[in-house]
Amino acid sequence: MRGHWDSRYADSELVWSTEPNVFVRREVEGMIPGRALDLGTGEGRNAIWLAEQGWDVTGVDFSEAGLAKAERLAGSRDVRVTWVLADLLEFEPEPGAFDLVLLVYLHLPAEWRRTVLVRAAAALAPGGTLLIVGHDRSNLEEGVGGPRDPAVLYTAEELIGDLPPGLEVERAERVTRTVEAEGHGGPGVALDALVRARRPAG
User: Fold this and answer.
1) For 96, what's the count of Cα atoms within 13 Å in the CB-facing half-sphere?
2) Which DSSP symbol is given to 45?
3) Gap between the Cα atoms of 114 and 124, Å rounded
4) Beta strands 168-181 and 82-85, pairing class
5) Beta partners for 178?
6) Threshold 0.85, pTM exceeds
7) 3-class SS at 156?
């Protein structure tokens, strides 16, 4: 899997947009900046945007090629992000240290996903927010883009079931994005699952 992503990121062109995910922007705008952790940061677009908003950001990914692109993009935008090369199945973030933890389009088999989610939740500081966005399972038949393997897709309800006790779910829903869809004659609609949860402050 690591080799697959290194190959995708090896090209000089960015695989993804330089702009943050629309739901990351929607959910985070208005929050007081603190420490943020972007798990599966890829080319760093969400981490870099957070840094531009004043967050102290750590971005983690197992693709050296992806992180190299992220570092170049951060330099071109004159922001600093701490980049960590690590496999999320082995990476254990500092417990209770982050005000915001992102998992955006991280698609793993269910058992692996639960492992990452438990560690992500443990990294939240009191009052901290966990934001998960990914391709909804219904996107396979009803939407465009995204993985074709149903084993790595999920619903918001399944994500809630994966979360460890102690978090308050603030939002759990299926959401839609307009995307450029090759072979569809123009823009299409992608279906995503979104979960926002919070560790109580007290």
Assistant:
1) 5
2) H
3) 16
4) unpaired
5) 189
6) yes
7) helix
d(CA 132, CA 157): 12
CA pair distance 37, 176, nearest whole angstrom: 24
What pairing do the DSSP bridges indicate for beta strands 124-135 and 168-181?
unpaired
For 46-78, the pLDDT digits (tens) are: 999 999 999 999 999 999 999 999 999 999 999
- Closest by Cα among 151, 119, 153 to 133: 153
Alpha helices in 77-184 (DSSP H): 110-122, 139-142, 156-162
What's the confidence (pLDDT) of residue 5? 42
Strands 186-198 and 124-135, bridge-based pairing: antiparallel
Q: How many helices (H) and strands (E) does the chain have?
A: 7, 7
Going by the DSSP 8-state scheme, the letter that residue 18 receives in this structure is S
**Distance of alpha carbon 36 from alpha carbon 102, whole angstroms:** 8
Residue 127 in contact with residue 99, Cβ under 8 Å?
A: yes
Given a contact cutoff of 8 angstroms between Cβ atoms, the answer to whether 83 and 22 are in contact is no
For the record, the structure tokens of 54 come out as 């004043």
Extract the tokens encoding 140. 């396979």
Binned at pLDDT 50, 70 and 90, residue 18 comes out as confident
- Check if the beta carbon of residue 98 is closer than 8 Å to that of residue 50: no
What is the per-residue pLDDT for 7?
A: 52
